[in-house]
Amino acid sequence: xxxxxxxxxxxxxxxxxxxxxxxxxxxxxxxWLWYKQDPGEGPVLLIALYxxxxxxxxxxxxxQFGITRKDSFLNISASIPSDVGIYFCAGVLTQxxxxxxxxxxxxxxTVNP
Amino acid sequence: xxxxxxxxxHSVIExxxxxxxxxxxxxGHDNLYWYRRVxxxxxxxxxxxxxxxxxxxxxxxxxxxxxxxxxxxxxxxxVQPAELEDSGVYFCASSLLGRMNTxxxxxQGTRLxxx
Lengths: 113, 115
Prior knowledge:
The complex is a heterodimer.
Chain A: E1 4-7, E2 10-14, E3 19-25, E4 32-37, E5 44-49, E6 55-58, E7 61-65, E8 71-76, E9 85-95, E10 98-103, E11 107-112
Parallel strand pairs in A: 2-11
Antiparallel strand pairs in A: 1-3, 3-8, 4-5, 4-9, 6-7, 7-8, 9-10, 9-11
Chain B: E1 5-7, E2 10-13, E3 19-24, E4 31-37, E5 43-50, E6 53-56, E7 65-68, E8 75-79, E9 88-95, E10 105-106, E11 110-114
Parallel strand pairs in B: 2-11
Antiparallel strand pairs in B: 1-3, 3-8, 4-5, 4-9, 5-6, 7-8, 9-10, 9-11
């Protein structure tokens, strides 16, 4: 089945530093998503990417959809303590009239003040 | 407006027991999804309801898992009998009919521990 390889698995950074994480897949996805999960909460959508090569920003977050539709990266600039959490990439899979999300394993981000 | 709510937030049960998880989607959302994250692994799709009908249950692990959505409102996911490998966080998500999955909202999850 489809799998998303997400890296790194975890990151420990100082407040103010920039962060980059990425996802790759052996399959093509027409839509890529980036989510953040805070402790004790469910995933919350950060950015959605629909077009190959698309570069989209949401505040300090920037994400790009790879030209081949098989990869994506998420950058966080000038990190702050509330950026702590687990970041997931996900691809939207459409099969037989049903849509579902295929997730990566997540990147756990720790920000030291 | 209330978001997607899940009950209980935590459950610890013994192997062989039965547990029922509940999800209340956002009012008016006909699409309802169940996902599960086993420790350290990816979040995996379990099944998709459209109103009360199962649109896709290809992700259900085995016949110990039973999902229902009577009346097309809230949904339950029952595990009977529970096994150790069923431990994990179970997420529910909902979206409006005809909306892409990008507009699905997730609940806070139920952390299930089978001992």
